[in-house]
## 1
Amino acid sequence: MFALRNTGKQALQRFYSAERFLWRLPAHAQAVALTFDDGPDPIHTPPLLDALRAAGIPATFFLIGEKVERHPELVRRMVEEGHAIGGHTWSHSEITALSADALAADLERCRAAMRAASGVDSVLFRPPRGKVNAAAIHRVCSRGYCLVHWTKTYSDYLKDGAGPLLQRMRRNPPAPRDIVLMHDHNAHTYEALLRAIPEWRERRLRFTALA
Ligand SMILES: [Zn+2]
């Protein structure tokens, strides 16, 4: 489904610094970064935040601007509870389909909404569906943003339920340096995580929010 493979990400990382392109935590990192796209969601984000708080796990949320505008209190809560936030476009547009000007305006609009909601001025950005090309990456990075991809996805977008999702998490658990892609606009991710987090804790995994 995703065109950008790990070999492509490795090549990009040689070209861009980790402040501009990030798909894996740096070599000295001992932690895992859990990331959640497509929120904030008034139904599904609060119980996920409850679970992360109970487990003492900081995460990173890539937010859709129009949802930030509708639910600023959830963005404030994320920041207050130690999570990082980043942009995910205003309305989930694929950035390869936007002109340079439209992309620049979209990035700034989403960033301003997050800033208004939380006081945090974030340059973290994740492209919807992970779709990028050389021009789009350059446009994002040259405007001072950090384009964040991932090392691991459990394909929670398949919507095949918490059971199969938990099985995929168990088959291939996170490891240090992983950036894990998930979503907080559904129930099955949260339900699977409630089972997976204690198991990951037993593996002595540590977790970090992206800086
Ligand atoms: Zn998305």
## 2
Amino acid sequence: MRLFSARNILTIAGLLGILLLSGIANAALSITATRVWPAADYTRITLEATQPIVHSMIMLKDPERLVIDLQQADISPELKSLSEKIQPDDPYIRQVRVGNFKPGVVRVVVDLKSEIRPEIFQLPPAGEYQHRLVLDIYPLVDPLMALLQQRDGLQTAPSLEMTPEIASTSPPATANAEQAIAANIPQALPQAPAITDKLADKATDKVIDKPYDGRMVTIAIDPGHGGEDPGAIGARGSREKDITLSIAQKLKAQIDKEPNMRAILTRDGDYFLPLNSRVQKARKVQADLFISIHADAFTRREANGSSVFALSERGATSAFARYLAQKENESDLIGGVSINVKDPHLARTLLDLSQTATINDSLKLGQAVLGHLGEINRLHKPRVEQAGFAVLKAPDIPSILVETAFISNPEEEKRLNDPVYQYKMAASILSGIKKYFSSNPPLSKSRMAESRFAD
Ligand SMILES: [Zn+2]
């Protein structure tokens, strides 16, 4: 009896200790990491902690600012360092101030450059990350639409999806458009002109496909991953998101030199873009093709070669295709998507429309690209594979996902980092696009609209 009661007392003491400890842990929420991802699309601030971050946010005017209170938090060195991470050329944020507001409440004040639309949300642990509190700062006007209007004039800008908000031109919109244009002009690409010219000469020797001479076509190029989502990491530490952006920028520069072809990038910087936003951007500019660029990774280091994927309405064509689609679709979990951003219109379209016709065109495009990739790299699979990739779900745009090579293979990782190889990779994709158009000339825009309504 005595022993028992002594044990009971110990147990109770232990329980109390645990309660006390967890109480202390709750009282001292500590921010373990902060990150800032500035971009014309939106600027993101991420706070990371070992537990959910209890918070509240208010918006204040004159001057424009956001005030975020973190409950039961202390000012860690990581949180303090947030102020230094704001770049002077951030499109939206002037500065961030961090201070103790009252006992147990830390206040973060974000001073803004203009009126904005904020989104704040929490993310559960995913990938390498613990609990995250994410603040996304959006412009009031879509920078992509502002860019198109400035470039092409209002006549040629897609009118179907224009909203009164997009059509207005307030001063901050103009500033954003200028930044977007500056980021998109070919001269701004980080490429040595001498190398470019030399490579361009070589590439013209090789390209045997006739130049495309139909109406102006728009190619949406989608550099996979970005920002919070690094994608696959190579053995030498290179990140998929950086390689995909370099190749995509080179492909855009090459396409823009072609007569009657122009390219837009779904992202032109190091920031995260949700999968459905990538599709939406392509649809907004009425893209004729959508090409998502990635670099593969697999647990076996020996795995190598290029592959091309299209959407499957049914099952995946192989276990590997299914594995890869699952991995690529995890991007939204790791990158972090606010539920509010999900587009109900797109979701409905995906349910309503049969994608069979588009998938057939996607397979033709994929096979043409795969054929040319085979000239510069071993092919992982000889034909286009299919699986449920979320990023390929535009119901009306032939879409492919190119896994350029395996970043997890040390030899291929080395080549993927080589600008000359990146240029060749882009040139092969362009050759594939031209080959596709030579046997599948695009419909005129009015016929496309008719066939859309007829479906
Ligand atoms: Zn990827």
